[in-house]
Amino acid sequence: MASTMSETHTYLWEGTDRKGGRIKGKTDAASEAMIKTLLRKQGINPIKVRKQTNLFGIGGKRKKKIKTADIAILARQMATMMTAGVPLVQSLDIIANGSDNPSMSELVRKVKSDIEGGGTLAEALSKHPEHFDDLFVNLVDAGEKSGALETLLDKIATYKEKTEAIKAKVRKALFYPSAVICVAIIVMGILLYFVVPQFQALFQGFGADLPAFTLMVIGLSEFIQAYWWAVLGAIGLAAFVLVRLNKRSRNFRRGKDRVMLKLPVIGDILYKAAVARFGRTLSTMFAAGVPLVEAMESVARASGNIVFEEAILQMQEQVSAGQQLQLAMSNTGLFPNMAIQMVAIGEESGALDSMCAKVADFYEAEVDNQVDALSSLLEPLIMAIIGVLVGGLVVAMYLPIFKLGSVV
User: Fold this and answer.
1) C-alpha torsion sign, points 11, 17, 20, 23
2) 307 vs 99, which has greater pLDDT?
3) How many Å from the N-terminal Cα to the C-terminal Cα in the chain?
4) Closest Cα to residue 187, out of 200, 196, 176?
5) Residue 168 burial (CB count, 10 A)
6) Phi and psi angles of residue 207, each rounded to the nearest 5 degrees, phi first
7) Which of 136, 192, 300, 353 has the highest local Cβ count within 10 Å?
């Protein structure tokens, strides 16, 4: 019975009401027979019932991947509706019907069906670990047990919104350097493959020695024309290997994260973002009543950087042995002095959650300011780099013409 309840589909139906009027609609249920039963209970005589096709998703919309931002919106919607007094199952039904993402609607309906089958919200969410992490499930479980689910959902929503905002800032910071590299490679490739050969044909009739810089560019152009497939293959293979290593090798990720933290400008942004995530996650977990030692494991996984993750797990061992959190932070040599002092004040005053939230607020603002500054800096830098590359090729092609003009 549980498996039947957990698998729901959307059915389109047509029928007649008590007055003989023709009506139609759309309802979610586990089977066609259940739809007919539900309609008869409502005084509707079903004439036609069919399962809605999912070729392009619910309502003819193409299915989209569920993103972390979608889960943040779900948490905020649940918190808002339950605070307004809407029952949990009804809240989920409203959210499922109102979502623009068919995949999200399907996920919410599965959660709703599990709850209708007698499970708790935490148990229903735990069946989808790819979308609801341990932190989310643990906080919901704490809210259900304490009778403060609305409050905990609000904390989860705030946490998700803040962490998504900081991730967006980090992605923005990394996008610009990546864009510079990609645009530069594309422009260079186009010039070397299409433009330089035109000048090369012109130079063959000069009957004079070409400058070394021009010969170097022509040689590079000939190589690209002959082995462009090998160049593209090497780039694709390198990208594939790096992605696989990043997924499978912890040592590779550790080395990559260490290097990223040491990069100029970008490294400082990533560092402050990790500190902000540490403060935000710890504040949320501690405010929800989760014991500090237990909370540290979720904090480590949410750090987004393996260097910070390993440092936080070391802190967990020290705290479980009776060490103060601020001393454990100091022992890692990783956290800034301001964050350590704020945590120390929080421990002494019994307001660790609020002080960690202040740490998160401060470093989130720092990341925000630095990303904006980086954007302003990189916009002219992109133009300068592309200008130098394109200008260099133009100079290389026109040097023989200048030389010929001086001889004449």
Assistant:
1) negative
2) 307
3) 94
4) 196
5) 12
6) 70, 25
7) 136
Pick from 302, 362, 310, 305: which is nearest to 333 by CA? 310
The per-residue pLDDT for range 180-198, each reduced to its tens digit, is: 778 888 888 888 888 888 8
Q: Which amino acid is at 225?
A: Q
For the stretch 111-120, what's the b/e string if a residue is b when 16 or more beta carbons lie within 10 angstroms of its beta carbon?
bbbbbbbebb
DSSP output for 89-104: HHHHHHHHHH-S-HHH
In whole angstroms, what is the distance from residue 101 CA to residue 112 CA?
17
Taking CA atoms, 148 is separated from 29, 42, 78, 153, 221, in Å, by 30, 34, 13, 9, 68
Percent of the chain, pLDDT > 70? 92
Q: How many residues does the chain have?
A: 408
Is the predicted pLDDT of residue 10 greater than 70, yes or no?
A: yes
Amino acid at 246: N
Q: Are 257 and 307 in contact (CB under 8 A)?
A: yes
- Sequence-distant (≥ 6) Cβ neighbours of residue 365 within 8 angstroms: none
Extract long-range pairs of 181-189: CB within 8 Å, 24+ residues apart: 183/382, 183/386, 184/385, 184/386, 184/389, 187/386, 187/389, 187/390, 188/389, 188/393, 189/224, 189/228
Q: Count of H helices and E strands in the chain?
A: 17, 3
Lowest-confidence region among 5-9, 151-155, 274-278:
5-9
CB atoms within 10 A of CB 130: 7
Q: How distant is the alpha carbon of residue 316 from its chain centre?
A: 26
pTM, 2 dp: 0.71
Alpha-carbon distance of 174 to 255, in angstroms, equals: 18
CA trace torsion 74, 75, 80, 81 (10° rounding):
60
pLDDT at position 206? 66
Residue burial 297-307, b: 16+ Cβ < 10 Å; e: rest: bbbbebbbbbb
> For residues 130 and 364, what is the distance between their CA atoms, to the nearest angstrom?
26
pLDDT at site 63: 64
Q: Please tell me the predicted confidence (pLDDT) of residue 255.
A: 92
Residues 38-64 pLDDT 10s:
888 777 888 888 776 554 444 445 567
Reported as a pLDDT band with limits 50, 70 and 90, residue 284 is confident
